[in-house]
Amino acid sequence: MTSPRRRLVAASILLLLEAVAFALLVTESVTGALAAAGFTCVSLWAHLVLHEFGHLIVAKLLRLPVIAVRIAPFTGWRNEVWIRPAPSATALPLRMVLFYLGGPMTNLLTAAVLGTATASTSTPLTRAALLGAALVAALLGMANLIPGKSPRSDGRNLLRWLFAPTATRAALQAGYYQEEVTRTLQTIARGKVGDHRLGNPVRDGNDPRLALAAFQQRWSTGHTQSAADLIADAERLAALARADSTDPAAAAAIAQVLTVQFGLWYLYAAAVNGSPVEHQEVLEISELAQLAFHAQPHMLSARVAMSLAHLLNQQPKHARSLLLDIRPSVDPPDLFSVAFLLRAIAECYLGNHADADTLIRAAGGDYQQLTQVVTAIQAAHAVRPLFAPAPMADT
Question: Which pairs with CB-CB distance under 8 Å and at least 24 residues apart come from 16-24?
């Protein structure tokens, strides 16, 4: 039995015992107490459904895009309404606050209705059942308003949108950007890793392909606990790629993944956040990109990695030259869309904005966040440096 299910069973038993005790105090009948307790416990399922229904109704009323709805009480899985709001949507903080309030307020409103209904009945058994159900609804509503550790906590997200709307909107956009980075990495790695025995930390001496697969799985699923863990694993992977004992094809695969993973984020940090990367980081990216390009110069994935390194090194002409011969009918669709957008960035830095617009249209709309990075560079009044100059030594 999984840990969430253990907690669910324990909570259900506790609820049942409390309901029986409460019903005995009101009805003074064992049979009536069991009946009222059973109704109270069954009402929990209804309150869970109503909670998600409240979120769903608010999402529909506020025109927040709903991706999926999962309601599976007593299975150990989290009930949830998934939405995908656009980071640039109008009045997004207010709409998100109302969305996260929708579920708890539905529970509290239900508790108020059930509590009021007890005044219209004189039967102790019915009163006990209604009061028990009202208590469950109230507890569920208030519990969801308490900020929790989970990123899906209603209370936590409510506070974030209330008191840090700008940072929360930026985090939302960054999350969507990471989805696009992950899609690109999956396209690059497709067919290059054929073993799924993953999960152990990346260590020197591991099979390079298994180490690469483990790194990608942890990054895409959020298994890595911190940025420091991610960087440590990336450094071990880079060491494997440079090792003489590593097969050139495996070394190229590692180099491509690391270059694209970090290179795309360096672009984002510079163009969106105005935070150029340190030049030393650019040199390390360039070294890995060259390793991949020398091993597989004709593959689009290697050219994308090398063009990223050229862009970060502020060499847009070299970046453009690698992406002139893109074949949409041959290369993977996701990858040629990224290639078009990277070439559009190069054209922006070269002052060819009309060509950049053409490339953005050719890329399609599948990479909306990366497209916004391109348009941010294009709309900047001055050329933004992609790396910070190295500090000069004292003389």
Answer: 16/41, 19/132, 22/128, 22/131, 22/132, 22/135, 23/128, 23/129, 23/132
Can you say whether the dihedral through the CA atoms of 301, 306, 310, 313 is positive or negative? positive
- Residue 322 CA to residue 297 CA, distance in Å, equals 10
What sign has the CA pseudo-torsion 35, 41, 47, 49? negative
Tokens 């109230």 map to which residue? 138
Task: Find the helix packing angle between 300-312 and 333-349, rounded to 10°.
Answer: 30
| Burial group, residue 299, by CB count within 10 angstroms (0-12, 13-18, 19+) | middle
Confidence at 230, pLDDT banded by 50, 70, 90:
confident
Of residues 197, 207, 214, the one with CA closest to residue 251:
207
CA distance 168 to 172: 6
Q: 253 near 209, Cβ under 8 Å?
A: yes
CB-based contact 331:138 (threshold 8 Å): no
Cα(28)–Cα(123) distance, rounded to whole angstroms?
A: 13
- pLDDT above 70: residue 128: yes
Which helix (H) or strand (E) covers residue 82, if one does?
Answer: strand 80-83
pLDDT tens digits, one per residue of 40-58: 777 888 899 999 999 999 9
What proportion of the chain, given as a percentage, has pLDDT over 70?
77
